[in-house]
Write a structure and sequence with these properties.
Layout lengths: L3 E6 L3 E7 L2 E6 L2 E6 L5 E7 L10 H7 L1 H7 E5 L4 E7 L2 E6 L4 E5 L5 E7 L8 H8 L14 E6 L3 E7 L2 E6 L2 E6 L5 E7 L3 E11 L5 E12 L2 H7 L3 H18 L3 H6 L2 H14 L5 E12 L2 H42 L2 H17 L9 H9 L8
Helix pairs in contact: 5-7
Length: 383
């Protein structure tokens, strides 16, 4: 339609006026009259609540409209080693990667971009680390956090910092941050406290070809983290394997009877062997202990029969020993009474007392002497 058209732009908006596809002007808040004539007129509106100006005209504005850019936008142009911290009204809202070229609308919020050169130092400033660690408590998250690595090293741990695949330093407990732009950075947290390696379900043959299943625990700790990480990609797996090898060697050179009689010998053998193999690795073995020795079902039955036979034989030996001792005591008593009538009479009285204890009622006729003579008759020795 030919003629003038009235266009109203809100205070929270800006608009691009395009004529026949080319930029003509930027319209601010207010009422505007636009003559269309025979041209194709387009109007693109932008809400200032979305401050980033994402449009194909960005490069054109930067090259051909410097005055417009200065008046309407905050211009960001970062180098290959520079990172931008974008703040709205003084609050960090975005981390911009290197080589960023962007425009942000001026208007509702004050826009500011702080530039940091990250070429020489991979560490984030301590103040920035503190801000980023508290982001979770804010209603609005910071954009671009994938460009930083935030690490919290717990107490009793150290962090192993690796840059470009090379180990750099050990990080003390606390919060740390590193730039990921233009570099590969990683941090591995290592526990410095004593740790337990459980070696379970090991099937091993003894020297006399009896299959056993053993469970063992090993307690270890780091003595030099840098040395351990330099030699072993996974120190915990290495510590788990070494007691396995030591356990097989200790059990394989002993018989089943020797193992059952002295289980602590296994611990001593494994401890000595593993400690020797771990020398110079930055890891120290504190102790090892066999928790269980599990026998096959048929071997349990055989051992139960052996134990039963041994205990039965021991009981027979004890019974024979007691019988022999009792017989010897009776013989000694008989020899004493043979030449001593008084001792014999005392034995008679002792016997009478035991007999009387089993009788409910006794009637005595003729006096006690008659009872004694009637119960016990002394005969002279045969000629």
């Amino acid at each position: 339609m030919l003629g003038f058209n009235r266009i109203t732009i809100k205070k929270s908006e800006r608009a691009l006026l395009l004529r026949n596809g080319d930029f003509e002007q930027l319209l601010g808040a207010g009422k505007h009259w636009v003559f269309s004539g025979l041209d194709k007129v387009q109007l693109e509106r932008f809400a200032l609540t979305q401050p980033a100006f994402e449009h194909e005209l960005t490069d054109y504005f930067l090259a051909q409209e410097p005055a417009l850019v200065e008046r309407e936008f905050v211009h960001v142009s970062l180098g290959e080693t520079e990172v931008g911290l974008r703040l709205e009204d003084g609050v960090l809202v975005q981390i911009l990667p290197p080589a960023t070229r962007k425009l942000y609308w001026r208007g509702l919020r004050a826009q500011r971009v702080d530039v940091i050169d990250v070429a020489s130092d991979a560490r984030l400033p301590a103040e920035l680390v503190s801000k980023l660690q508290s982001v979770a408590l804010r209603p609005r998250a910071v954009a671009g956090l994938d460009g930083v690595l935030l690490v919290q090293v717990p107490e009793f741990h150290v962090g192993v910092l690796t840059l470009q695949g090379q180990m750099q330093e050990l990080l003390a407990p606390g919060n740390h941050g590193f730039w990921r732009f233009n570099r590969q950075v990683a941090v591995t947290c290592v526990d410095l406290r004593s740790q337990i390696a459980e070696v379970s379900g090991q099937e091993i043959l003894t020297r006399d070809k009896v299959g056993l299943r053993l469970n063992m625990s090993a307690v270890w700790h780091f003595t030099d983290v840098r040395q351990a990480m330099a030699q072993m990609p996974k120190p915990a797996d290495h510590v788990y394997r070494e007691p396995q090898f030591g356990l097989r060697a200790a059990v394989g050179e002993q018989t089943l009877d020797a193992l059952l009689e002295n289980k602590s010998a296994i611990d001593q053998t494994v401890l000595a062997q593993v400690r020797e193999r771990l020398q110079g690795t930055g890891i120290a073995l504190e102790s090892v202990g066999v928790k269980d020795i599990i026998l096959p079902g048929e071997m349990k039955t055989i051992l139960a029969q052996v134990v039963e036979a041994e205990k039965s034989a021991q009981a027979n030996v004890i019974r024979r020993r007691e019988e022999t001792a009792a017989t010897r005591s009776l013989l000694n008593t008989a020899k004493v009474m043979e030449g001593n009538p008084v001792a014999l009479r005392m034995k008679e009285l002792e016997t009478l007392e035991r007999v009387a204890e089993r009788i409910d009622k006794i009637s005595v006729i003729g006096g006690l002497d008659q009872v004694l003579n009637g119960l016990v008759t002394l005969r002279p020795n045969a000629p």
